[in-house]
Amino acid sequence: MWYNSIIKWLLSSPLHFFVSNNMMLITYRGRKSGKKYSTPVNYFPARDEQGEYLATTSLAERTWWRNLRGGAPVTVRVKGQDLKAKAQANEDDEIVSQGIFEFLSESPNIAKYYQVELDDDGLPDRSDIARYAPGKVLIKVRLT
Description:
Shape: globular
Distance between the termini: 30 Å
Order of helices and strands: HEEEEEEHHE
Helix content: 10-25%
CATH class: Mainly Beta
CATH superfamily: Electron Transport, Fmn-binding Protein, Chain A
Largest sheet: 7 strands, antiparallel
C-alpha cells in the first residue's frame, strides 16, 4: 500500500506523536528469506491471563502476519521508542473475537469501522463480532 511508506517515515520521525497513540511499526524477519520487514499497524493495549500485551488485527488473506505463526521475535516502535518483543499470530475465531471485543469495549467510537453495533450499555454486540472475526487474525505482541 502506497501510504505505508509515509506512515513508516512518520512513526520513525520526531513527528511520530501525530499517529503513535494508536499506530506502531512492527519489524520482523521473514521465515524463509530471513529478510527484515517493517509494517505499520494499528494497535491497542490489551490484557489476558498471561498479562499485558499490544494487539493488532489483520485480514487473513494478507501475508505479512504469517511470519509470526508459532511466535517470533520482533521490534516494535511505539510512541517513538524501539522495544523488543515476541509476537504471536492467532487464527482461532474465538481468540480473534475476544480480542476484538476487548478492543471495541475500550474504543467504542470505532466499532462502526468493524461493522459492529453497540448494545444499550455501549458494549460491542458479540454476534456482530462473531460475524466479523472469520477471515481475521489477532496478533499479540508481548514486550520482553
